[in-house]
Design a protein that fits this description.
Blueprint lengths: L8 E3 L4 E6 L10 H9 L3 E4 L9 H4 L4 H17 L4 E7 L1 H12 L4 E5 L8 H18 L4 H14 L1 H17 L7 E6 L8 H9 L5 E6 L12 H13 L4
Helix pairs in contact: 4-7, 5-6
Length: 246
């Protein structure tokens, strides 16, 4: 069965641009509803898809975390090349880690992190999540259970190096988060089943921004952009962005 590949999206608005970054194993659909909402509030919204994402799990483990960082830099430059000078970045999960890294060395209007890890103490959950993603993908391909289990075993072995790279990426950002002076909104689901929720407190307490806020959501899990709290999330992010001096 041939599956339709997800694509990046660009919703044109005014001269205030928001770069939307998805999480590990995800793609642009993870931030599409948020993008639509922010666009309805006037913002231009752009969501890239990192290399290996939106494709097979084999393709995902065939790329490196450094390539995702390159993709984020290219996405930022894409907005600059289109004439946008005022750019905020909003990232979900690993996308928030990449957003913080961008904020550390690039002039931004704001950075928003959503359920973004600062501690690599969730490798078991990461493995379970990757296995679930891989199994569902292969079921959609129409493969039988025996073939799927064989391929999953190989994939989990092949993913170990990528997980090490993700750990390195998170640690790098964590060690430098106190170099961030960009206005910061930290968003965290109370019932996050994937990462340590205390990551939100770490980001909030250690960024050096004068303008920083933290918001907790009681009715959300890790996939906060699809949660029961998503409408409130949309409003809170829009309110934060609206409060800034663009």
């Amino acid at each position: 069965m041939k599956m339709k590949q997800p694509e990046p999206f660009m919703f044109e608005g005014d001269d205030r641009a928001v770069l939307l970054l998805h999480g590990f194993t995800g793609h642009s659909a993870d931030v599409r509803m948020l993008g639509r909402y922010l666009n309805s509030e006037g913002y231009t919204c752009y969501a890239p898809i990192y290399r290996g994402h939106g494709k097979s799990p084999e393709e995902l483990v065939g790329v490196t975390a450094d390539e995702w960082w390159e993709d984020v830099q290219e996405a930022y430059q894409h907005l600059k090349d289109k004439g946008y000078q005022k750019i905020a970045v909003v990232g979900l999960s690993l996308g928030g880690v990449l957003a913080l890294r961008l904020a550390g060395n690039t002039p931004l209007q704001a950075v928003v992190t959503m359920c973004s890890p600062m501690f690599f103490d969730n490798e078991e959950q990461l493995t379970v999540g990757f296995r679930k993603f891989s199994k569902e993908y292969k079921q959609l391909e129409g493969k039988d259970d025996h073939t799927i289990e064989q391929e999953l075993e190989q994939l989990l072995e092949d993913s170990k190096e990528l997980f090490r790279e993700i750990e390195t990426s998170i640690t790098r950002v964590k060690e430098n988060v106190d170099m961030i002076y960009t206005p910061t909104l930290v968003v965290q689901a109370t019932n996050d089943e994937m990462i340590n929720p205390d990551s939100a407190n770490y980001i909030y307490e250690n960024v050096e921004a004068d303008n920083k806020q933290i918001q907790w959501y009681e009715n959300a899990g890790h996939a906060i952009t699809f949660s029961k709290d998503k409408d409130q999330l949309h409003e809170d992010i829009a309110d934060f962005l609206e409060s800034l001096d663009w």
